[in-house]
Amino acid sequence: MRYVYSLLLYLLAPALLVYLLVRGVADRRWWSRWLERFGDFDATGRMRGIVVHAVSVGEVNAAAPLIRALQQHWPDLEVTVTCFTATGSERIRALFGDSVHHLYAPIDLPGAVRRFFRALKPRLLIVMETEIWPNLFQRARGMDIPILVANARLTERSARAWGRFASLAAQTLQCATLIAAQSEEDARRFVKLGANPDRTRSVGNLKFDIDLPPDVAQRGRQWRARWGADRTVLVAGSTHEEDERALLGAFRGVLGRFADALLVLAPRYPERFGQAFELARSAGLSVARLSDGQPGKGVQCLVIDTMGELLPLYAAADIAFVGGTLAPVGGHNPLEAAALGRALIFGTHTAHIEGLAASLISVGAAIEVEDEASLLKAWMSLQPDPAVRERMGRAARKLVERERGALQRSLDIVGAILFQ
Question: Of 59, 129, 244, 336, which is the active-site residue?
Answer without folding.
Answer: 59
